[in-house]
Amino acid sequence: MADYLKKIILNSIQKILGETFSIEIKLEKPKIKEHGDLSTNVALAIAKQLKKNPISIADQIVQKIEIEKSIIEKIEIEKPGFINFFFSKNFYHNELKNILSHGNDYGKNKFQNKTANVEFISANPTGPLTVGHGRNAVIGDTVANILEWNGYKVTREYYFNDAGRQMKILGESVRLRYLQIGGEKIIFPDDYYQGNYIIEIAEKLKSEFGENLKEEKIFKEKAETEIFSDIKKTCEKLNICFDIFFNEHKLYKEGKTDEIINEFKKNGSAFEKDGALWLSSNILKSEKDKVIVKSSGEPTYRLPDIAYHREKIRKNYDLIIDILGSDHIATYPDVLAGLCALGEKTNHIKVLIHQFVTILQNGEIVKMSTRKANFVTLDELIDEVGSDVVRYFFLMRSIGSHLNFDLTLAKTQSDENPVYYLQYAHARIASIIRFASEQGISLNKDADISVLDSESEINLIKLLTQFPILLQNISINFEIHLLCEYLHNVAGEFHKFYHENRVVTENENLTSARLLLCEATKTVLGNGLKILGISTPEKM
To answer: What is the maximum alpha-carbon separation in the chain?
Structure first.
């Protein structure tokens, strides 16, 4: 419908201003329902360009618009120059048929031959995934789902580093626990990893090698293997699977980082000072130069990250998305600037920054520290409230806002819990359809749905028809919480419809039509929950 309106609006504008006149036409759903079904501010935009009265321009556009009465019931102009479109009931009845005919594919938008890479979690294997990693994981997987729903072929990627100081400390932590298990008195440093998982890994090594293990690298290798195995199992609980696990070490082994250094030096983007290699503030567009290789020879994060992203660019993805925590907000611009200094295009790289998570238990904040091991693992959270609740709670707020994860609410099985509310609506509709079937009434897609003309029925259909354009918009702005809000509104509108209208009645035509409306609502709820990675129970 949006495409249809854009076409007839542009045709009207070109009749007034000439065939070569071009302008972007934006359509939005008005916040006030009395202002129509879709609205455009195109007259205001033209008025600004031409320095003319927007109301006058809006009136000229409306006068020249050629509409089909079976689709558009009326058009109104609203100050200071908005053009509001009101669709006919016939249009919505046809849209209801469209939902039913597409079924599980309803809402899909096809961007043909598009590819995307979504990198998320990317936690080094130093311990179990925490709730902070969990929000990143669910956002990343859902972004990938959204893109797939819009026709992209998506690669899910996990980037990690199994070298460096963190991993050395991990291996040493396991070694010291191994020695303690063997009876040695060890003073365990405060800054070493202290979780039970370290002890469990040490016990496995003792079982495998006895008390004579001396080769230090085995401690780190065993820790990495065990922790990565647990990370993958945790992801599987959330139905998250990766296509690629990319090891940062590969960049050094294949000379990709040296390639970056040489090019920076050659084009003057980098210079040596005090034994270190610096990126010039000119290319970073910052006040300070930034170190990319320390005087010790150790690279900072900037060097491998630039090399890593360059490798992704070389794979010719149409879209590259990084899901990062807010602690990266000041660092990722350096990586993008470095890529630009190498002559790479970065306008197809989208960085999504999410805020962190606070766990509330009995009204109190649960403090978390990975090394001190007083954290809630993602596994524990899933076991406590279930994967459906974990996914929804991580998604129901804007990724740019801090998230309070209320365990009390998460475990509540009532309408107060938004996950329960949505799943109950889906199950209730399934129950209505089963009841009708038991009465010998089956779904009849050829039923006359023009009998659906009450306010609650039309409002529900209107809401259902917004699903495709919502998903298309989210594939561009990645505001996933809007899908959560939309599904909540669909469930609420359905409950209102159901409260005001008996579905199975003595009127056979009306019953058949309302059953189809129920089926369409179930379809939209089911498709939306599927995108969020949440189950759709038929019974509750």
So the answer is: 91
| Cβ 368 vs Cβ 134: under 8 Å | no
In eight-state DSSP terms, residue 38 is E
Q: What is the CATH number of the domain that holds 501?
A: 1.10.730.10
Residues 313 and 212 in one domain: no
Q: Is residue 435 within 8 Å of residue 496, measured between CB atoms? A: no
Does 153 share its domain with 213? no
327 and 472 inside one domain: no
Assess if residue 523 is contained within a domain: yes
Task: For 361, list phi and psi in degrees, rounded to 5.
Answer: -130, 120
Q: Is 369 in contact with 375 (CB distance < 8 Å)?
A: yes
Residue span of the structural domain in which 485 resides: 93-109+415-532
Q: What is the predicted pLDDT for the residue at 168?
A: 94
**pLDDT, tens only, 294-350:** 999 999 999 999 999 999 999 999 999 999 999 999 899 999 999 999 999 999 999
Q: In terms of domains, do 468 and 425 share one?
A: yes
Number of structural domains (the chain) is 4
Residues in the chain: 540
The neighbouring-strand residues paired with 77 are 83
Same domain flag for 37 and 76: yes
259 and 126 housed in the same domain: yes
Sheet of strand 244-247, all strands in order from the earlier edge strand to the far edge: 244-247, 153-160, 115-119, 319-325, 349-354
| Nearest alpha-carbon partner for 480 in 422, 397, 410, 419 | 397
Q: Which two tokens stand for residue 2?
A: 């949006």
Mean pLDDT estimate for the chain: 94
Helix intervals (H) in 278-401? 281-284, 302-314, 332-341, 378-385, 387-395
Cis, bond preceding 80 (omega within 30 deg of 0): yes
3-class SS at 75?
A: strand
CB 108 within 8 A of CB 361: no
Only one residue has tokens 């999410």, namely: 354
